[in-house]
Amino acid sequence: REREREERGAAAKENNCFEGEGEANENMMRRATATCSCSGETKQVPRGLASFRRSRASPLALRRQQEREGLLRARGRNVVLCKAEQGEDLNAAAPSMPEDVVASESTAALGGTPVKRTSMLVVGATGTLGRQVVRQALDDGYEVRCLVRARERPADFLRDWGAIVVNGDLTNPQSLPPALVGVHTVIDCATGRPEESVTDVDWKGKVALIQTCQAMKIQKYVFFSIFNCDKHPNVPLMSIKHNTEKFLDQSGLDHTVIRLCGFMQAVISQYAVPILEEKSVYGTDDQTKIAYMDTTDVAKLTLASLKKENCSKVLTFAGPQAFTIQQVIGLCERYAGADAKVTKVPLWWLTATRIATSWFQWTIDVTDRMAFAEILSSNESFVAPMQDTYAELGVDPNQTVTLEMYLQDYYSMVLKKLKEVGAQSRQGDYYL
Length: 432
Known about the structure:
Strand content: 5-15%
Number of helices: 16
Structural class: alpha/beta
Helix content: 40-55%
Number of strands: 9
Shape: globular
Radius of gyration: 31 Å
């Protein structure tokens, strides 16, 4: 033990000696530089003196110097790769600039990390539309990061697909900046849940997200809105969507607004499933038509818009054909092979209920959503021509799924599953 202590003491003295010599050499180099640069000229340190300095430095100082040199070389390679990806001529001479500007740009190039055009953040990735955007983006070769709220049952299916999952919440702005580091494009698919406040999520949360994207220098922002939202300022959800569009336009971000008419997936939850379960479905006698579109097609068109350099700022996505509620119920009855129990809801009943719920603070959110439902029952058609959009995005319209095809595939799959499990009771008892 005494011999070990003596050896450690000798080693410590040797290291202190090396470090002292290193400091002395450093002071000598400073004095030499000051003597050479007094005339205003910058002279390089002789190679022999620099090598002498490195040879006399301590092992710790040498290791730190090697790490710094390796880091600078790696950063230089990243800058070259970034320029190559952007198609810049690496051999072209740079224009002459002041020395302070050159220094600041070189410092930024060495200190920053190049952001790939394929890096993407999907907000609301577990939703009906968000998960389809994630899957399509992964198929197209994007590096996808998903912003999801912390919950008991994690979104493992997103990780299984190959996406990166990060926790964040629009109602907690402090959780947003870490998720945006190294991101080029943000696709906003989020919306409030039925039990949540529309104002807190769809307005305050979106404003916080857009402001964070401004601060983080996000280069592309995609926002999903509602068709004809600018024509209904008295409906809270549509008014919020329109105000978000205006706020995004004033933010200065390169953005695209996509207005949607309706999802085919909503038909499944509102009509297809209740008919299978022999439950009542609710409808009206109005002639409101909605051009439903499959969220898979919405995702494909959205990714196609990202590949266009001069894409329109506002796009409208609509399905190939529009249907009334009665027509949708008829399609479900045909492919399910069962009659629907339809309960007619008069339009005046919706209006009266919305007025009644507006008197109580705890039912304000219900009132807001009923106002949107009232618009959907006002004989207004949510239909938009798509010929120009398909031509602009370079997408074949014949590849778009129709509502008949969607319902037929859905019911054939479900009924096949029911037969496999040997369902002999009510269909709702074995619905998977």
